[in-house]
Amino acid sequence: MSIQLGQLCSVILEQHFGINVQKIGNELYTGAKSLKELIKSTSLSKNEVSRALAVLLKFRLATYEIVKNKGFSEYSLNIDHILLILRYPRYIYYMQSKYGHTTALLVEELLRTGCETATYLISKSVLNSESRERNTVIEHRDKFIELIQGNFFIRAILGEHNDELAEAVRNDPTLLFQKPEIDAHELISLQEGKTLVTTKDAGFYWHVNFEKFHQHFRDAILYQAIERKINSNAGECFKYFLQSMYLRTDPWKPTSNPIPFGEIRSLCEEQSNNLELIRYLEQYIAIILDDPLTMLTKYSDTGGGQYIVQMKKVFEHLAWICIENTIMEKFGAKAARIFRVVRMKKYIEQEDIQKEAMIPSKEAKQLTYKLLEEHFLQIHTIRKAGSSGTGPAKCFILFYVNQYQIVILLMEMCYKALFNGITRSSYDSSVNRRLIDKSQRLESVIEAMKERGESEEYIMEILETLTPPEREILEKVKIRIKNLYSAEIGLDETLFLFQMYQYYQLNKV
Where in the cell (predicted)? Predict the structure, then answer.
């Protein structure tokens, strides 16, 4: 764990949960601690520390483990889930674009509360919706059940009988997506403002299943890569391969089980209206097979051919592309050429680099050692046979590339850039808070005036209370914050790609 990652986690916690949760998060970042240790190190009261820990546990940003023979619990920080807070708007946008406004409201509400029962979550979602009709409750209930069936919501292992539930889930994982008992009459009562002592699904809590969203985001990267390199028909063809893969293979396996050609053709004919894809299906598969990304490989010729989806290999190639683009942007085309030469040759001497890259000797040396200094290249020394000593004349110096190490380096850059962006955005917002509040108040007043049918002249007079210099400052601040937010989204997408690469490198299953 790095300093950059720690700073990023700290500013995220402070921005979303306040200073006390940030203090507890900073302490837990260095290692697991007990309640007594946290009270001592943070100088907060027991009540404040307990509340902060409750927030972290509710949002799955921390975990606890009972220490055997000591009678107390130790708390640990879940760093991966803290970083996912930056991805919350993306989850909501995905649901909005794919499944509609109601499902987006449900997901947004569960992300906001962290953990909730179905009945109370649906009632809160209905309150946030524009409609107040009784059938709105039924619609939200049905959408909630669809989200469980689609594995977007997952059962939380909480409550008095959590040990028994955890044991049952180990034996039968489908219990995590078991439909809860939701009473429509209870939902209507809550909508009408009545207080309920208990509900039929009391004790059945739900979380957002981030893994399911990440599966869709990962698949979207693959579709977009194929669409950019070939065309939309090839992207649609690959969708059917993934659809078939999930019927016979765990979605997170590095390689799929063999997929028969006949099954892909059947899926195309049943689900697609694309006559061109159906007609030239074999040719599109052949093009995907020949693509350097190696998304598909042929397993055998049995039954018209059997194919394997190569998740691990494709993310290795995508990581290489991202690394080369970074070097191109940071050091120029010649440095990127040197990097590609070293990567292709695996181990190469300095003199051979300039020959292979066709770059003048002095410039090649400068760029090579610049890449070495920035840790995009590494060196390996081999002692010459029969030589003694350690001087450069006594050994071969070979340059090579360590992809995993470079990915970690670029992830650190992403953490630092995200921290800088969030900090700058918060600074701009706080410095110009008076102007932003004034602008928002004016907007609400003008909206009310328009509803009342006030004259344009009167509305213009009210607008003039915001002076031209103030308007100019406000516009600049809005543009800067918007650009910083766009950069944050782009950085998170890059970080997600590297996380997928890391996942497949570290998991050998």
Answer: Nucleus
